[in-house]
Amino acid sequence: MKKTILLFIVSLILNYTLNINDCFAQWQADVRLTSDPAVSFPCYNNGWCIAVSGNVVHIVWYDYRDGANGEIYYKRSTDEGVSWGGRYTVDK
């Protein structure tokens, strides 16, 4: 019984150690999507503001560049975030 448990633990450790090289992080360096000096926020309630479908990445944010009223903006990338299209204002 002890031998079986020991073999099981050793096999788990070896499996973890050998497969660790197959794990890749998907986060890249931060990219600023606007050159305006106003502070930008993703959303109030930490909801989803980034969506991905295949190679297309959608992002929505808001900022106060136009004064006291925050505006909602949208951008999308069709090449997995390598380049980004123009900024769109979303009607409230």
Q: Compute the number of helices.
A: 1
> What string, H for helix and E for strand, traces the elements in order?
HEEEEE
pLDDT average, as an integer?
75
Uncertain segments of ≥5 residues (pLDDT<50)? none
Shape: elongated
The major sheet is characterized as:
5 strands, antiparallel
The Rg value, from CA coordinates, equals 22 Å
The portion of residues assigned to helices is 10-25%
How many beta-strand runs?
Answer: 5
Beta fraction: 25-35%
Structural class: alpha+beta
Distance between the termini: 67 Å
Assembly type of the shown chains?
Answer: single chain
Task: From the structure above, extract its key features.
alpha+beta; 5-stranded antiparallel sheet; 1 helix; 20% helix; elongated
Account of the protein in words:
The chain has 92 residues and is of the alpha+beta class. The protein has a domain of 55 residues. 20% of the residues lie in helices and 26% in strands. Strands 1, 2, 3, 4 and 5 form a five-stranded antiparallel sheet that branches. The longest helix is centred in the N-terminal third of the chain and has 18 residues. The termini are far apart.
